[in-house]
Amino acid sequence: MKEFVDPFLYNVDKLDIHGLDRFSAVAMIKNFIDNECKIEAKKIIIVHGHGEGILKNATLEYLKTDKRVLEYKLDIFNDGQTIVYLK
Predict the structure, then answer these.
(1) How many Å is the Cα radius of gyration of the chain?
(2) pLDDT tier, 14 (very low <50, low <70, confident <90, very high otherwise)
(3) How far is residue 15's CA from residue 3's CA, in Å, rounded to a whole number?
(4) Total structural domains within the chain
């Protein structure tokens, strides 16, 4: 069975936070969302990886508190990244 890939994900800006600690990752995410809001992006991807879940949890906790985030969800095809919809 061939895996379905959303063609619109290729045109979305991505932030890869692999190898960062949770505090640096949150700072990078905040800065990335700042920049994406300036260019009026509506959809972004944050790649946090699988690992022990530290970066994933830090990412999701931050996204809960950011008022510019309309919705976010783990990618159904790759749970090592989160798809974020901005206001």
Answers:
(1) 13
(2) very high
(3) 23
(4) 1
Instruction: Name residue, tokens 């749970």.
Output: 79
Judge whether 78 lies within some domain: yes
Q: Give the bridge partners for 69, in sequence order.
A: 86
> CB under 8 Å to 24, separation ≥6 — which residues?
17
User: pLDDT by residue (tens digit) across 36-69?
Assistant: 999 999 999 999 998 888 999 999 999 999 999 9
Task: Please identify which residue in the block is written with the tokens 């699988």.
Answer: 50
CB atoms within 10 A of CB 55: 25
CATH of the domain at 63: 3.30.1370.110
The overall average pLDDT reported for the chain is 89
Written as one letter, the residue type at 43 is K
Establish if 53 belongs to a structural domain: yes
